Amino acid sequence: MKQGIPLEGISAEPPRLMAVHAHPDDESSKGAATLARYAAEGAEVLVVTCTGGERGAVLNPAMDRPEVRADLPAVRRAEMERAREILGVRQHFLGFTDSGLPAEGDPLPEGCFATQPLDVAVRALTAEIREFRPHVVVTYDETGGYPHPDHVMTHRVTAAAFDAAGDPARHPGTGAPWRPLKLYYLATLSRAWFAAMHEAMTARGLDSGMGPLLEGWPETAPTPEVTTRVRCDGYFAVRDRALLAHATQITPGESFMRHPRDIEREVWPTEDYHLARPLVPVDLPEDDLFAGLW
Ligand SMILES: [Zn+2]
Predict the structure, then answer these.
(1) Where residue 5 falls among pLDDT bands split at 50, 70, 90?
(2) pLDDT in tens, 45-88
(3) Closest CA relative to residue 193, chosen from 15, 31, 27, 25
(4) Exposed, middle or buried by CB within 10 Å (0-12, 13-18, 19+), for 281?
(5) H helix intervals, the chain
(6) Distance from the CA of 9 to the center of ligand 1, in angstroms?
(7) Looking at the predicted structure, is the pLDDT value of residue 200 above 50?
(8) Distance, CA 49 to ligand 1 centroid (Å)?
(9) Residue 73 CA, ligand 1 centroid: distance in Å
(10) How far is the CA of 30 from the centre of ligand 1 (A)?
C-alpha cells in the first residue's frame, strides 16, 4: 500500500474495503479488477451480497439445463464461491431474497429484498460494517446504476448503513460503532466507456456490437461525476475469470466478454468511481480509493 502520513489509530491496520452488491455476479461485472488489485496489494476486501440471486434467469444457453434450473440458488452460491476465490476476497451474503425484475406495473414478490422495511435491511448491513470495520465502502449510486429494484435498494441500504454504523444510538446490539471514512459510487460501464470502446473497435475495423446500446442510451440518463480513477488493467484478466465463474449469467464470447482486452487496456485502463461521502480531507481527482487515509 502507499506510504504516507498515517491517520491516528488506523496506521497499524491493513486498509479494509467493503463492496456492497445486489446479486452474485454484480461484484465481478462492476469494479472487480479494483477489488482484485487491492486484495493483491494487501488490503482486506469483503464483498457483501444482499441477495442470493434466486430470481435471476439462466442467461447462458449452455447452462440452461433442467438440473441447473432446478436448484439455481445453490448453483449461484457455488459460482459466487468460485468467483470470490478468483478475486482473492472474502464474501458474505446479507441473507435477503432476490426481487427479480418484475414487468412494468407488476407487484414485487412478497418478502423480497426491495420490499423490506429500510431499517431491517440497514440493521443487517450495519452489523456487517461494525464487524468488518471498513475504511472505504463502495456501492451503486441513487439510480442503482441499472433500474433493478434490488440495485436501487442496495444503494439506499448502503448509504443509510454508512451513516448509521458510527452512531452508538443506532442499531444497538449489532457490535461496537464503526465509522467508515469514504463512500464511493461505481461509475463503471458509463456511456463514455462504451463510446470509447466502440470507437476504438470501429477504428480497427471490428464490429463492437455496442452501436445499438449507444444509440438507445437515454439522453436523460444521469452520469455520476468521476472523481476517482483506479488503474487496474493488470487485473482485467482476473476480473474476466471471476465473471466467467458465474457461468449461468455469462456467455463466453458475448456482450461484455466480446471486446478485445488489449483495446480495453489501451483505451480505458481504469475502473471509475464517484466519491459520494468523504469524511476526511480529499484532493480530487484521485487515483486511489484509500487516498487521504494513509
Ligand atoms: Zn444485479
Answers:
(1) very low
(2) 999 999 999 998 899 999 999 999 999 999 999 999 999 999 99
(3) 31
(4) exposed
(5) 26-29, 32-40, 66-70, 72-87, 118-132, 149-164, 191-203, 211-215, 236-245, 261-267
(6) 36
(7) yes
(8) 10
(9) 14
(10) 10
C-alpha of residue 2 to centroid of ligand 1, in Å: 32
What's the chain's length in residues?
Answer: 294
Query: Residue 97: which pLDDT band, with cuts at 50, 70 and 90?
Result: very high
Per-residue pLDDT reduced to its tens digit, 211-242: 999 999 988 887 889 999 999 999 999 999 99
How many angstroms does the Cα of residue 200 sit away from the middle of ligand 1?
28
Of 106-115, 179-188, 220-229, the one with minimum mean pLDDT is 220-229
Helix (H, G, I), strand (E, B) or coil at 203: helix
CA of 31 to the centre of ligand 1 (A): 13
- pTM tops 0.70: yes
Residue 44 CA: distances (Å) to CA of 89, 97, 133, 188, 250: 7, 27, 10, 22, 27
Compute the 3-state secondary structure of the chain and give helix, strand, coil in percent, each to the nearest 5: 40, 15, 45
Measured distance CA(288)–CA(294) in Å, rounded: 11
Give the C-alpha separation, 157 to 168, whole Å.
Answer: 18
The dihedral region occupied by 51, where left means phi > 0, alpha psi between -120 and 50, and beta the remainder, is: beta
Instruction: Report CA(21)–ligand 1 centroid distance (Å).
Output: 7
Tell me the DSSP string of 47-103: EEEEE--TT-----GGG--HHHHHTHHHHHHHHHHHHHHHHT-EEEEEEE-----PP
For residue 3, the CA-to-ligand 1 centroid distance in Å is 35
